[in-house]
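Q: Hi! New to this. If I give you a protein sequence and the SMILES for manganese (II) ion, can you show me the bound structure?
A: Yes, paste them in.
Q: Okay, here:
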Amino acid sequence: MFDGLLHEIEKAPVICVFRHLIPDADALGSQWGLVEWLRLTYPNKRVFALGKHVGVKPEMFPVPDQVNDDVISESLAIVLDTANAKRVDDQRYQLAKTIIQIDHHPLHETFGNKKYIFEHRAATCEIIAEFLEANVVKPLPKKIAEYLYMGLLTDTLRFSTNNTSAHTLRIAAYLAQSDLNFSKLNEEMFSVSSQEYRFSNYLRTNAVIEPCGVAYSFVTLETMEEFGVSANDAKERITDFGGVRDFEAWALFIEHNENGRRFFNGSLRSKQIAVNDIAQNYRGGGHRNAAAVKECSKEEALDIIEKCCLRIKEAKHNDTV
Ligand SMILES: [Mn+2]
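A: Thanks. Here is the predicted structure of the protein with manganese (II) ion bound:
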């Protein structure tokens, strides 16, 4: 399944590893897991990690490298966990001699010379670990195993998502051979700051709960300032509405200000009903049960809630929820 990948790596004197904008732990974990392994295995190659040091929990990972255009243009670029070209963090990936995509997202855009896309894998970290398992004396060095495990843990929400498979758990077992401290890793990936804790309380207290089973909240710029949370951190708290038996769908609308124009970007989640086709009518899209909308007015956001309600009622009528 990794035909030709090791060959491309072995013949490249310079390798630049990219991932998506506003990286999550799967993007950063796969990037740093691969970069550290390449550096260790090929000390004579020059290996770089690119992208901005931002996103979700960047402090858990090393600071990315500063690389000039000449270096990229003589390199092999490996782009991880990124479904479309526009989302690659550092568009200079296009300068590279050869571009390889490695990912697990569905509906993929081709922007590389070669791609290794496995939609049924739960995380890009799962794919990288699988590749290393086939090429490495086991077990992996602890640091590398930790990076990969972090991505696996967060993309599967601690091995609880539908795409968690026997293979995912087998790969986790492979990584576990490197003496991982599970409680410490879980604590690091999932514990929140006291600010975020207070913000979560605010969200739960102020959520609107529609009788149809949709819960939602608007977060204004003023609220984020009051609680000292960024729009990116605020967005992550959509998970606060999960795990409630009576909620069929939930949404979080975060306010943005672009050149004086204020609007809401929203995250939609559901248990059963499809929300991605609704999202498509509001400059968004995504997976069936997890989608996003962009640049909505408050009225549009409320329309979205109403459409979700209608759909839940239809589904209940047809006995599918
Ligand atoms: Mn991922």
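A: The domain at 5-189 is CATH 3.90.1640.10 (inorganic pyrophosphatase (n-terminal core)). Let me know if you'd like me to explain how to read the tokens.
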